[in-house]
Amino acid sequence: NDWLLKYYKAKFTSIKVAFRTYRDNQELIQVLCSKRWFREIFITQATADFKSGDPRIVKLYTCPVYPAPLSGLVMPNFRKSHFDGYSDHCPGLTAAKLAITRGAKVIEKHFTLSHALQSETEKGHTGSMDIDELRDLKKFALEYQMIDSEWQDS
Questions:
Q1: Which of 13, 64, 149, 153 is deepest in the core (most CB within 10 A)?
Q2: Cα separation of 113 and 25, whole Å?
Q3: C-alpha span between 23 and 103 (Å, rounded)
Q4: pTM
Q5: How many CB atoms lie within 10 A of CB 36?
Q6: Dist CA 23 CA 52 (whole Å)
Q7: N- to C-terminal Cα distance for the chain?
Q8: What is the DSSP letter of 129?
Q9: Which residues pair with 57 in a beta bridge?
Q10: What are phi and psi of 128, to 5 degrees?
């Protein structure tokens, strides 16, 4: 786990465990929970029966395809789900905004300096967001939170 020590030494306060790592390397989750290195440990696609007792665990729902198509996307109601948030692999912001309206408390989405960097060997840019999309998503989340809290109060 040399990479994990490097991650810690870089003073990151959060770490995200990808779906395939969660599925194939359960002992890594135990190691992460045994360390007090991170404030938050994001786990993608953690199953409902996953119980760590660690309040730092944040469970993220995702479609483990990159990039993920919007057609056929199944989005849980986060208010009634064991998931805390959404790891978005879809192009654009539609899926992330839908997750917010369904109660996701966390949105994780890759970041790119330019969607034009997309290539046959690097497919991550299509489902990523750029700085303008990040601003748009933040604005949407803040405005939705304001409206949603007003509805809940009435």
A1: 64
A2: 31
A3: 25
A4: 0.82
A5: 7
A6: 15
A7: 51
A8: B
A9: 41
A10: -90, 170
Q: Tokens representing 47?
A: 């199953």
The span from the CA of 44 to the CA of 37, in Å, is 19
Q: Which residues make Cβ contacts (< 8 Å) with residue 123, sequence separation at least 6? A: 66, 67
Q: Which amino acid is at 92?
A: G
pLDDT tens figures, 35-87: 888 888 888 876 666 777 788 889 999 887 778 889 988 899 999 999 999 99
- What letter represents residue 110's amino acid? H
Q: How far is residue 2's CA from residue 17's CA, in Å, rounded to a whole number?
A: 16
Give me 125's structure tokens. 């840019």
> And the tokens for 23?
């599925």
Strand order in the sheet with 40-44: 14-17, 40-44, 57-62, 85-88, 106-109
